[in-house]
Amino acid sequence: MKITNVEVLVLKSPGLYNRPAGSEEPLGPTYMGLVRVSTDAGITGYSDMETSAPVAKAAVEAPSWSEPGNECFEGLASLIVGENPLEPERLWYKMYRGSIYYGRRGVAIQAISAIDIALWDIMGKFYGQPVCVLLGAKWRDRVRAYASTLFRATPEAMREAARRYLDQGFTAIKFGWGVFGEDAGRDVRLVEAARTEIGDGIDLLIDTGWFVERTPKQAIQVVRSLEPYRPFFIEEPLHPEDYDGYRRLAEAVETPIACGEQEATEWGFHDLITRAKVDILQPDLTRCGGFTVARKIVHIAERANVLVIPHSWSSDLLTAASLHLNAFQRRAVFIEFNTSQGPLSRELVNNPLRMQDGYLEVPTAPGLGVEVNQEVIEKYRIA
Question: In 255-274, which positions are buried (b, 16+ CB within 10 angstroms) versus exposed (e)?
């Protein structure tokens, strides 16, 4: 079996990414890249990616620059077309090395990540197994889901939103970004309103948003101001590269500190463990390097005895992939479930994922276990 084509399809939602004014849901991503890898056996693999889709498309479709063995400026597709898709680790490194002069991080690794996921999807379909089994283990059939949404602007809207998630069956809720960080006093009131509404039996998770730039001491103050409301974790209160700041923060507070959705490669996550000393790693499969890297992240996290809770915000396609990563972990805690109602979040697969009793089932069909909705792709594709 050989790879015959690697494409990036650019999708655009009719609505813009928005910050909800009241308790209504945000729309989710405006643009999305969808990677499609085709083979001569008629097996096709897919992955979405939350990045600048037109830039990723250019990185994938750029031409070859040099003779084999000297690659460093290559378009990613040129590196793997004609190769065996059942060798994802070798192909991962070939793409990483072949894009090294313009890559290593950012859109290059994000495009490699999505291609890698699509290759694992192909492998699962070829062998007739779900991806988690190919990774090496299926420790569980379902994973507890947390509702992932944005902060609302008022305590009343926070309470209304929290009540809606409880009514939907969630047993954990994460509020993030939005208005958080604009007013420290209001931040506390918003978190207090959420905790009051959900009570003590529901887990509350907080993403403070690193776009609000803070010093380590300021981050410590933010976390301590929220600790009375017992957050399960507080996510990314510092810049993603502030490894030493994270260490100061993690050592100064009791609440677990989570980080990693912007991080990439096993080397980056090694720094989060050994230098930043964070408590929870949050690899995003479409940013960290795909399944090939995420499997290594799980292993180093287990050795260091830290938790892995994948970041999974874009669509049901990524959520399905992240469920396989959760199933592969010996100790899985949560699956992130983006509550946005835009079409790119909710309609990209034929059978959208449904929560039951606060849990999402790990897909059992071969590969990622979900089928992309071709009609939706054609409806929203712009390139």
Answer: bbbbbbbbbbbbebbeebbe
- Dihedral sign for Cα atoms in the order 245, 331, 50, 256: negative
Fold exhibited by the domain 3-129: Enolase-like; domain 1 (3.30.390)
Q: How many CB atoms lie within 10 A of CB 144?
A: 20
Q: Which amino acid is at 8?
A: V
pLDDT digits (tens, 9 = 90+) for 131-167: 999 999 999 999 999 999 999 999 999 999 999 999 9
Tokens of 231: 């957050």
User: Distance between alpha carbon 128 and the CA centroid of its chain, in Å?
Assistant: 25
d(C-alpha 187, C-alpha 183), whole Å: 6
Two tokens, residue 232: 């399960």
Per-residue pLDDT tens for 55-82? 999 999 999 887 777 788 999 999 999 9
C-alpha span between 66 and 68 (Å, rounded): 7
Residue 369 CB neighbour total at 10 angstroms: 23
So where are the chain's domains?
3-129, 134-372
User: What b/e sequence results for 304-335 when a residue is b if at least 16 CB atoms lie within 10 Å of its CB, and e otherwise?
Assistant: eebbbbbbbbbbbbbbbbbbbbbbbbeebbbb
Long-range CB contacts for residues 154-158, cutoff 8 Å, separation at least 24: 154/22, 154/190, 155/189, 155/190, 155/192, 155/193, 156/193, 157/20, 157/22, 157/23, 158/23, 158/190, 158/193, 158/194, 158/197
Whole-angstrom distance, CA of residue 281 vs CA of residue 268: 11
CATH number of 134-372, picked from 3.40.109.10, 3.30.70.890, 3.20.20.120, 3.40.50.720: 3.20.20.120
How far is residue 170's CA from residue 211's CA, in Å, rounded to a whole number? 28
Q: Do 3-129 and 134-372 agree at the fold level? A: no
Task: Centre a 10 Å sphere on the Cβ of residue 339 and count the other Cβ atoms it contains.
Answer: 23
Cα angle: 212, vertex 214, 217; to 5 degrees:
150
**CA-to-CA separations, 259 to 21, 146, 225, 342, 365, in angstroms, rounded:** 27, 17, 19, 26, 31
Measured CA to CA in angstroms, residue 234 lies from 206, 220, 249, 250 at distances of: 5, 11, 11, 10
pTM, 2 dp: 0.97
**Euclidean distance between CA atoms 165 and 194, whole angstroms:** 11
> 3-class SS at 105?
coil
